[in-house]
Design goal:
- Keywords: Membrane, Transmembrane, Transmembrane helix.
- There is one protein chain.
- Strands 3, 6, 7, 8, 9, 10, 11, 12, 13 and 14 form a ten-stranded antiparallel β-sheet that branches. Strands 1-2 form a two-stranded antiparallel ribbon.
- The chain is about 40% helix and about 25% strand.
- The protein is of the alpha+beta class.
- Mean pLDDT is about 80; it is low at about 120-145.
- Strand 9 and strand 10 (about 260-270) form a beta hairpin.
- Among the domains are: about 95-185, no CATH class; about 195-310, Glucose Permease (Domain IIA).
Length: about 325
């Protein structure tokens, strides 16, 4: 039986030929046939490898950049931390010094109050508060102990609380000192003039002769005419002028019931109502009134009663 119309199909292989041709056409020409699929597969693998390498390089570069930035930031933070640590330690030292200064003020307050008055109950310092202590290197604390910010803040807060207490205590002490200074300044305590004491306080032989004696309510200090006579304490002049046997007399009120009298002056320099200070010249020595020669008759009276001036000198 005869076959009609038979068609034969031949499969054509796709491939690449790699030829190696010598220079100048001399020598053998080599050829290598590579299937299309092998070339495509190899090209795909190479493409994947290239992409992987590129991605890896980019990732590595990014990682290195981040690491470099992190390193720079870490170094900056270390520097900042170092500076802050130094500042904190310096702050701790300053705070400790401030606390020591406050303690010295407390001690000074106590010492001054003991000088002002022997009665401690009337001048007790209100500054005796127990304050926290801190330890830090270089200021007496154990080596290696670093200042703690909470401790420093606690001390600062405590010192801030102590400021108004210290202020009130020192203001009260100042007022007390001013009052005592004023009392001392108003208390006769110096000689009214230079010279020789010719008569003392109490009974004496009459300077005008005879066997009778008289009561002398002050002391007499003799010197030359014109010798300066000074106020023996701060006060206000309540009399200035002639007064019977005292001659030219000055009387000064020092407050607290204390009055001083200066008699037999040659010349008076002050007037009634004038304020005078201790050591200020108020007159010049003379021999006016009942007097046997140039001298000053000096009296101290307390609540109107003459007392021995020697107790005030």
């Amino acid at each position: 039986m005869q076959r009609v119309g038979e068609i034969k199909v031949k499969k054509v292989k796709k491939e690449y030929t790699l030829m190696l041709v010598p220079h100048h056409g001399k020598g053998t020409v080599w050829g290598i046939r590579l299937p299309m699929r092998l070339v495509q597969f190899t090209a795909g693998i190479l493409g994947i490898v290239v992409v992987g390498v590129v991605v890896t390089m980019l990732s590595y570069r990014h990682t290195m950049n981040v690491a470099s930035a992190d390193k720079a930031e870490l170094e900056r933070l270390r520097q900042v931390n170092s500076v802050q640590a130094q500042q904190l330690e310096k702050m701790a030292g300053s705070t400790a010094k401030l606390q020591a200064d406050m303690n010295r003020l407390n001690q000074l307050d106590s010492d001054l109050r003991r000088l002002v008055s022997s009665d401690e109950s009337s001048g007790t310092s209100r500054s005796g508060v127990v304050r926290p202590n801190i330890s830090y290197k270089g200021q007496g604390g154990p080596a290696g102990v670093k200042p703690n910010i909470d401790q420093i803040n606690e001390i600062i807060a405590e010192l801030q609380k102590q400021v108004p207490v210290r202020e009130q205590s020192l203001l009260a002490l100042r007022n007390e000192l001013e009052e005592k200074i004023a009392r001392l300044a108003a208390t006769p305590s110096i000689w009214p003039a230079n010279g020789d004491v010719t008569s003392r306080f109490g009974w004496r032989t009459s300077p005008w002769g005879g066997n009778s004696g008289d009561w002398h309510p002050g002391i007499d200090i003799a010197n030359d005419y014109g010798t300066p006579i000074v106020a023996t304490a701060n006060g206000v002049v309540i009399y200035s002028g002639w007064y019977s046997g005292y001659g030219n007399m000055v009387e000064i009120d020092h407050g607290n019931g204390i009055v001083t009298i200066y008699g037999h002056n040659e010349k008076i320099l002050v007037h009634v109502g004038q304020k005078v200070r201790k050591g200020e010249t108020i007159s010049y020595m003379g021999s006016t009134g009942l007097s046997t020669g140039p001298h000053v008759h000096y009296e101290v009276r307390v609540n109107g009663t003459a007392v021995n001036p020697a107790k005030f000198l």
